Amino acid sequence: ICICKLLIQMDKKQSGISVNELANRSGVSSSTIYALMNRKHANPRIATLDKIRKAFSLSHTEFWSVMGHKS
What does the alpha-carbon distance between residue 70 and residue 35 come to, in Å, rounded to a whole number? Predict the structure, then answer.
C-alpha cells in the first residue's frame, strides 16, 4: 500500500497537507507516516489506515479507490 499515492492525490484536493498536519489530524505519528510514505512499513494495520482515511474525510470506497483497489 502506498500512502504516497494518497498524499499526492489529496494534495491536489486540499492545497497541500503536510505530514505533521496529517499526524495531528489522524493521531498517527509522523514517523509512522514517513515510514509508510517511504515504503519502510510494508504492512500497516487496518486501524492505522482507517485513521488516515478519516483524517482526509474519505469514505471507505473513496479511500480504497485512491489507493488503487477496487471494491
Answer: 24
Q: Which residues are CB-neighbours of 20 under 8 A, at least 6 positions away?
A: 30
The backbone torsions φ and ψ at residue 59, rounded to the nearest 5 degrees and listed phi first, read -70, 165
User: Cα 71 to the chain's mean position, in Å?
Assistant: 18
Question: In whole angstroms, how large is the CA radius of gyration of the chain?
Answer: 11
pLDDT tens-place string over residues 24-68: 999 999 999 888 877 777 788 889 989 988 988 888 888 777 777
Which spans in 1-71 are helix H? 3-13, 19-26, 30-37, 46-55, 60-66
Query: CB count, 10 Å around CB of 61?
Result: 11
